[in-house]
Design a protein that fits this description.
It is built from ten helices and no strands. It has about 190 residues and is mainly α.
């Protein structure tokens, strides 16, 4: 039997995935960085509460999600980027020449309700199972499946894609978000 890895060493490996998830929630690079930093500080301070041998990544994602929603409740007010002008200014136009450009995807993705973005990010882009995502969000598995499916359908509508249309992209994370089975294959 292998001994569990030291969570202090493993934590660093999850930083890129935490940032992606934070970006999907905040839609702002600086806020996402702050959220990841707060998450790491909380996790580091509470490593004694982490059960060795369990899923550190899921634990970190749960801390990040709870931190985000706690912050929203405290703020009581959110400044919306309705037309996507600020978000669009942060994104750099992709260099691939596939049919779907990343800016189009981000614009469409930002129009989804928060719960659908969260479900698609966890299940699609981050590769968590429906069960893991449901546990992290504190909802039933069917709720996560429903949110992810409604989000995928709406993304296809916003992007003007037909159900039988194949995507010509090289970005695996975007493909995974849009995929019906979360594997990146439509």
């Amino acid at each position: 039997m292998t001994t569990p890895r030291d969570p202090k060493e493993e934590l660093v490996e999850h930083l890129p995935a935490l940032r992606v998830f934070a970006l999907s929630l905040t839609r702002d690079g600086a806020s996402a960085d702050d959220l990841v930093q707060d998450t790491v500080v909380k996790a580091w301070s509470n490593l004694d509460k982490f059960q060795a041998g369990t899923n550190l990544r899921a634990w970190l994602f749960t801390i990040l999600r709870n931190t985000f929603y706690s912050g929203r409740r405290k703020a009581k007010r959110e400044v919306a980027d309705v037309d996507g002008a600020f978000t669009g200014a942060l994104a750099e136009k992709p260099e691939h020449d596939g049919k779907l450009q990343m800016n189009d995807f981000f614009r469409a993705f930002s129009k989804l309700p928060e719960e659908q973005r969260e479900a698609l990010t966890l299940v699609g882009a981050q590769g968590f199972s429906y069960e893991e995502a449901a546990a992290m969000c504190g909802v039933a598995i069917g709720t996560i499946k429903s949110r992810a499916n409604r989000g995928r359908v709406r993304l296809n509508e916003l992007l003007g894609m037909r159900d039988d249309e194949e995507m010509e992209m090289t970005d695996g994370a975007t493909l995974a978000v849009l995929a019906s089975n979360g594997t990146g294959h439509l």
